[in-house]
């Protein structure tokens, strides 16, 4: 558990995070930890006292298991607001609470090999500050919380699976967001869907 503000993880050059290991970031208030360029298994962000937007600046090397966002305090966790980059999550992306921003003024993406779930009360901002953010999902997609972009930004949700994927949008799904069906499997809508942007099928 990383129970402090700022600080540093062990250098990735001499650290291996084993399968089944779990990292919990709980103490961040205003400063992101350094040395995040390793590949983690399960990575959980639960910073209940966070009082400043935290820009990870695309620093995580990769996540082979699940990426879980439980709390960002009163602010946001930003994947990349610096240069633009991609994050590969081998398992599920669960935004259970707080606000997660994929791109803040950059062109960035997050790809999940498993399911994507944005829970009620949580927010996923695909892009902010004239950025362009893409969420790619190979598993089921469930939006019960808010999924949006801000004015001047562009976002897309891309369904990439090779098997049947369920798509359920029960929360707020607004602004300039496109839906792309690029997987070779079928996509099954769980109820009515209102797509605020364009719908493209390429698979």
Structure description:
The chain has 203 residues and is an all-beta fold. Helices cover 0% and strands 43% of the residues. The strands form four sheets. Strands 1-3-6-9-12-15-18-20 form an eight-stranded parallel beta sheet, with no helix packed on it. Strands 8-11-14-17-19-21 form a six-stranded parallel beta sheet, with no helix packed on it. It is globular, with a radius of gyration of 16 Å. The N and C termini lie far apart (41 Å).
Which terms summarize this structure?
single chain, mainly beta, 203 residues, eight-stranded parallel beta sheet, six-stranded parallel beta sheet
Could you provide a short overview of the structure?
The protein is mainly beta and 203 residues long. The chain has strands at residues 22-25, 39-40, 42-46, 54-55, 62-63, 67-71, 76-80, 86-89, 93-95, 99-104, 107-112, 116-118, 123-128, 132-137, 141-143, 146-149, 154-159, 165-169, 177-181, 187-189, 199-201.
Q: Roughly how much helix do the residues carry, as a percent range?
A: under 10%
- The rounded Rg comes to 16 Å
**Helix count from the secondary structure assignment:** 0
Form type: globular
How much of the sequence lies in strands comes to 35-45%
Query: Averaging pLDDT over every residue, what do you get?
Result: 95
What is the first-to-last residue Cα distance?
41 Å
Number of strands: 21
Task: Trace the largest sheet across and list its strands.
Answer: 1-3-6-9-12-15-18-20
Please give the largest β-sheet: 8 strands, parallel
Q: Sketch the topology as an H/E string, one letter per element.
A: EEEEEEEEEEEEEEEEEEEEE
Report low-confidence residues grouped into runs of 5 or more: none
Structural class of the helix and strand makeup? mainly beta
